[in-house]
Specification:
The chain has one domain: TIM Barrel (Alpha-Beta Barrel), CATH 3.20.20.70. With 305 residues, it is α/β, with parallel strands linked by helices. The chain is 45% helix and 12% strand. The N and C termini lie far apart (48 Å). β3, α3 and β4 form a beta-alpha-beta unit. It is built from twelve helices and eight strands. α1 runs parallel beside α2, α3 runs parallel beside α4 and α6 packs parallel to α7.
Length: 305
Amino acid sequence: MTIQGHNGMWTGTWTALVTPFCDDEARSLDLAGLERVVEQQIAGGVDGLVACGTTGEASTLTDDEWRAVVSTVKQAARGRVPVIAGTGSNSTARTIEATRAARDLGLDGALIVTPYYNKPTQDGLLAHYRAVLAAVPLPIVLYNVPGRTACNLLPATVAALAADPQVVAVKEASGSLEQVQTILERTGGSFPVLSGDDALAVPIYSIGGHGIISVVSNPAPARTAALFRDARAGRVDAAAQGQIALRELIAALFCESNPQPVKMAMHLLGLMSPCTRLPLLTASPAATAAVQTAMVRLGLMTEGR
């Protein structure tokens, strides 16, 4: 396949989709709920969809379930926005296998998290990603989230990988603006750096970031998409005010382990059940109250719904 390089396709607001489960003992997949979520996201104006990432509870899915979720998102999107899937693991061989599956299912790319638990060196990370790139001709988005993986993909390593046109962006969730700045500096500002932190979306846009892979866009797609569009259009005050307006909801969505609160938010919107799979739990009453209060204040739902 032809690899699209560093272009506008890999910018803007991408939603890290939740994976709806039924409220049954097995927590079986709710694919009809997933279709509703996809429609809600596209109607809200997001630029792309990410299936089976951290927010999608990919680590709890079987291989068959992963394929079902990815296929459902791809089919429901109907080409209106690009769709990528999380394919990373702490095994290079399994990452290659999953990335091949993403290619075979017709996805537009793969989001590959740094290997967790193993704690590879930077040379090990280079070797890991290069092995995937050599094995599968598919656009790759790097994913750095050291708070979950105990492994930080450093700017020099990102820059080395960005030299390959098959590497089309990085989701940077270190929480460090300095790290984002260094990546932009080392890549000449043209390599798409996507925020992995909702609370830092506009700050990252202000220093040259190219978009976000977002959790808060699940319940608030239009408001989240507006942040990037305002920032890119030079509407600095509007972008800043939009970021501030989302602060309470973002805080509520991360008051417990993601995606417990965001699945409750989607339940409050009537789109799906709030169920997660163990070892995660359904959002607590305190988290539910925080999410509901924030959503009411934003006008996403009415009081008492």
